Amino acid sequence: MSSNSFGKLFTVTTFGESHGPAIGCVVDGCPPGLALSADEFAHDLARRATGKSRHTSQRHEADEVEILSGVFEGLTTGTPIALLVRNTDARSKDYEKIVEQFRPGHADYTYWQKYGIRDPRGGGRSSARETTMRVAAAVIARKWLALRHGIAIRGHVSQIADIVPRSFDASAIEANPFFWPDASQVGEIEAFMDALRKSGDSVGARVDVVATNVPPGWGEPVYGKLDAELAAAMMSINAVKGVEIGAGFGSVLQKGSEHRDEMRLDGFLSNHAGGILGGISTGQPVTCSVAFKPTSSLRLPGRTVDVSGAEVDVVTTGRHDPCVGLRATPICEAMMALVLMDQALRHRAQNADVGDVFPRIPTRTEEP
Ligand code: EPS
Fold it and tell me: Whose CA is nearest to atom 10 of ligand 1?
C-alpha cells in the first residue's frame, strides 16, 4: 500500500492498523529547536479519542504518545520525529462474524478489490483509528505555526443530521461532547443522539474549521494551490464526502458583485473566498467546511455479499460511532495545520527574500 505519506517539506508518514500492536507516524522536516515533550500530545488526542461520552464508540484507548526519535533534551533536532501510540483496547472478536462479509458503505469491499486480502480487525488500516496520528503530528505543526506566526486553528461541528446551531458562542464549543457552538441546544442533541443510538442507525455531520493569522502569500499557484491541498487533506479523512472552501457551493447562487471580497486598506470587506485567491492565502481567515457521511457499521441488517459470492445480510455488532463527525473537529483542525505547516515551509524555502510587499491589507482575526 503506498500513499501513506503527506506533505512535501513537512512530511508525515503514518503506519499501523486499528487492532495491531501500535499505530505511529514519522514526522520529517520539522525545524530544529522547537521545544517538544510527550505530554504536549495529551490534550488534542483526548479531544479526538473514543469513549469520552456515551455518544461515541466505547473503545477506551490510552492514546499515550511515545517520542522515539528526533527530540534531544526537550528540543526537536531536525531529524525524523517518530511517534508511537500503543493500541490497548482492541477487541478483535467483535469482527469474527463479519470476517467474510462486506459492510455496505464501508471500505471492506474496496480494500478486498484492491489488495485481495484485508485485515478485518476493526477495519485494519481503513479504521478512523489512523487519525490519532494525524492529530499527534499536527500538535507539532500547530505549535510551530502559533509560535512563529500567531496562527490559531479552531473548528466546531456546524450540523448534525438536520440540526444546525441557532447561535455561535466560541466558548461553548469545548464545553460539550458535540463541539457545538450553541449551549442551549446541547440537551436537544443529547436526546437526538440517545434515540439514534437506540435505533441502531447513524447520521452524518458537518465540521467547520478556521485558521486565523495566516499571512498572505502561502500556497502555490497551480497544482499546489492552498485550497486544493486543503480539499485533498480533508477528503483523506475517513468518512468525508464533501469539502467547501469559503462560500463553497453557495458561490453558485451568488452574483460576482456579491461574491467578490472588496478591499480597503484596513481590511477586506467580506470573506467569501475563504482566505484564498488563486490558490494563495490573502491574509484573511482560511475557512473550510467538511461533510461526514453516516457511519456504515450498523447493527441494522443490511444486504450484502460475502467472499464466497453468496448474497447475505450483514449485522455489525461491537463498539461504533453513531456519528463519526462528532469526533472529527480535532482531525479537521489537524489536517488544516499540516497543510499550512507544509505550505509555510515551502513559502519560506522559495520566497523568504520577497518579504512584505506594499500594500499589505492587515490580517484580521475575525470575519468581517
Ligand atoms: C472504528 C470502530 C471502532 C472505533 C474506532 C473506529 O473501533 P473498534 O471496532 O476496534 O472498537 O472505536 O475508532 C478508534 C478506535 C479511534 O481511536 O478513533 C471504525 O470502524 O472505523
Answer: 122
For residue 60, what are the contacts with CB-CB under 8 A and spacing of at least 6? Answer: 50, 51, 89
Instruction: Give 166's Cβ-side CA count (13 Å radius).
Output: 6
User: How close is the Cα of 200 to the center of ligand 1, in Å?
Assistant: 16
pLDDT tens digits, 113-162: 999 999 999 999 999 999 999 999 999 999 999 999 999 999 999 999 99
In the chain, domain spans = 5-351
Whether the CB of 341 sits within 6 Å of ligand 1: no
Query: Can you tell me the distance from the alpha carbon of 271 to that of 259, in angstroms, rounded to the nearest whole number?
Result: 8
- pLDDT digits over 233-285, tens only? 999 999 999 999 999 999 999 999 999 999 999 999 999 999 999 999 999 99
* Burial zone of 282 (CB within 10 Å; 0-12 exposed, 13-18 middle, 19+ buried): buried
CATH fold of 5-351: Chorismate synthase, AroC fold (3.60.150)
